[in-house]
Write a structure and sequence with these properties.
Distance between the termini: 19 Å
Structural class: mainly alpha
Order of helices and strands: HHH
Number of strands: 0
Strand content: under 5%
Number of helices: 3
Shape: elongated
Helix content: over 70%
Largest sheet: none
């Protein structure tokens, strides 16, 4: 029994090592292929955020002209609306991420059960009774 458990443990360690090596290779391949996409996405997001500021100032000026409000009031209303919309988006996004994180709990629980099973297999019978 001890030899079988030792062999099982060696196989498990070899499998874990291979999985880690495969993850390293996959991450390297991902980075090689995704690097340009990540840089382009970051540049696009930066440009879009910069344009959003200009658009908000334009909207405030439009409100000032169309409604006859003061410059300060139109800027405060525009900024407040943008802050409200951004806050709601953040709240919805965080709720979605919290819900999505539940899927990771399933994997964590499965790993925990597998480790408990492995411990029960590797623990000698006389130790498990004490």
């Amino acid at each position: 029994m001890r030899r079988s458990a030792s062999s099982l443990l060696k196989d498990f360690a070899r499998l874990a090592d291979l999985q880690i090596q495969l993850l390293g290779v996959d991450l390297y391949d991902f980075w090689q292929q995704a690097r340009l996409g990540i840089v382009a996405t970051l540049g696009a997001v930066t440009l879009a955020l910069s344009a959003l500021t200009v658009l908000l100032f334009g909207l405030a000026d439009f409100i000032q002209t169309a409604a006859g409000w003061s410059e300060a009031l139109s800027h405060v209303v525009t900024g407040g609306c943008a802050l409200l919309i951004g806050g709601l988006g953040l709240l919805l996004g965080l709720r979605q991420l919290t819900t999505a994180a539940g899927a990771l709990q399933r994997s964590r629980q499965e790993l925990q059960e597998n480790l408990e099973w492995l411990r029960s297999i590797l623990t000698p019978e006389d130790e498990s009774e004490t």
